[in-house]
Amino acid sequence: KSRTINKLMINEEQIFYSDSTLNVDRENLQLKNCVVFSTSINKNNEFEFIPENLSEIVSLGNAGEVKSYINHARGLIEKRVGSWIPGSFRIDGDFVKADLQLSEVNDVNPELKPEYNDFVLTLAEKEPTKCGFSTVMIVGTKDGEPTIKKLYSIDLVETPALTLAMFSKKEEMEMEEKEAGKLKTIVKSIA
Fold first, then answer.
1. Alpha carbon distance, N-terminus to C-terminus of the chain
2. pTM score of the predicted model
3. Exposure string over 145-171, b if 16+ CB within 10 A, otherwise e
4. Torsion of CA 5, 8, 13, 14, to 10 degrees
5. Residue 185: per-residue pLDDT
6. Contact at 8 Å (CB) between 38 and 154?
7. Residues in the chain with pLDDT < 70?
8. Neighbouring C-beta atoms of residue 63, cutoff 10 Å
9. DSSP 3-state of 158
10. Which helix (H) or strand (E) holds 101?
11. What is the pLDDT of residue 44?
């Protein structure tokens, strides 16, 4: 048995916060607080990233336009999601977060762009843990440590190597705890 109250789901054994719309701005076609790089998650890369790499990603991301594609389809305009907003790259613990501006046009097939953006925004709202962002970069070494030389794109993929989901798991857990407290108050007032 379950029911929905103010976007909070009550389940007999668990309490879930089921709204990630805080990170989705449909009006401005933006995704906010996206996790784009991490030093604590490394599923299949040859490098063990270090804290200095966070600053390198932030500097490269804030220096100019970094595009985003679906599944690393770099160079295919119809697969372009948008561009990362310069100045929005920032360090949050062992993550780099940034804000994504979705493209308003698709030069190859303009009539599909609104549907395409709606797909990306809905995915972010309803299933942000089912995909994430993957950083396409050139990594070198200096004194035996990895160094980020160039940032090509940060793409939306189903299985990212350096992140767990679109938005920080830590952030989601803190939100769940906060909303669980509110929910208990709501449930007591209903009962």
1. 16
2. 0.73
3. ebebeebebbbbbeebebbbbbbbeeb
4. 180
5. 55
6. no
7. 1-21, 44-45, 74-78, 105-114, 168-191
8. 12
9. coil
10. strand 95-102
11. 62
